[in-house]
Amino acid sequence: MGTCLLEGEEAPALVVNGGGRSSYVLACEHASNQLPTSLGTLGLPEAELQRHIAWDIGAEKVARLLSRLMDAPLVLQRYSRLAYDCNRPPDSADAMPEISETTHIPGNRHLSPDDRLMRTREIYRPFHAAIADLLDRRAAEGTRSMVVTIHSFTPVYKGTPRAVELGILHDRDRGLADGLITSFPGVDARLNEPYGPDDGVLHTLNLHAAPRGLRHAMIEIRNDFLLDERGQAEWAERLSAALAHTAAH
């Protein structure tokens, strides 16, 4: 079996402010559109790699600002979800998608079992190990943890416009989501939209937070609000206020 990440390439997980004292632990699974050198462009033109199919546009910037505002630790995934979508388990067809939305991904077609295992071992496992290690350390210290994942979504999906502006997602536990959803007056905020548990988008939370009995939620911001620094800062500030208010109740 070969290797996916070459010597000297960036590690798949980057922990930001790991010693942050907030009760919140943040994760951003789709922070980057970078691809491992060994995968080239997966047969895609550069323009496709700038689209939402490759990453959650604006999500990393919001997550970093939120980490700073709240003094919260943050785990970022450094490779595109087209290489491996770390919010999907290895047995999911969407983990290494052959089609994203309506775009065919040539470099993901006809992957051998060894190819799939290589990406799982070198991208998926280290990212989730970083989250688990962070939560384990906080548990050992007696530090309270709540897990929130930060995402963005496209305003038009397969040609259909989406009116929803903010999604607060939950699966096994809705306590944190219910508290957050009331914190955005004037925003079209909805529970479990534009995705829900049946879409398989809550893997990270179901893997790390639910088994530990930690409160958790997934936040999805429509990405046309996050195209510049002003929008990113505005949403980070909104989320910081909402999360602080919810944690206190």
Essential attributes:
alpha/beta, two-stranded antiparallel ribbon, about 250 residues, 6 helices, seven-stranded mixed β-sheet, 11 strands, globular, about 30% helix
Provide a concise account of the structure shown.
It contains six helices and eleven strands.
Average pLDDT metric: 95
- SSE succession: EEHHEEEHEEEEHEHEH
**Fraction in beta strands:** 15-25%
Instruction: Give a quick account of the main beta sheet: strands, pairing sense, barrel closure.
Output: 7 strands, mixed
The largest beta-sheet arranges its strands as: 1-3-2-6-11-9-10
Terminal CA distance? 51 Å
Number of strands: 11
> In percent, how helical is the residue content?
25-40%
- Based on CA atoms alone, the radius of gyration comes out at 17 Å
Total helical elements: 6
SSE-based structural type: alpha/beta
**Structural shape:** globular
Low-confidence stretches: none
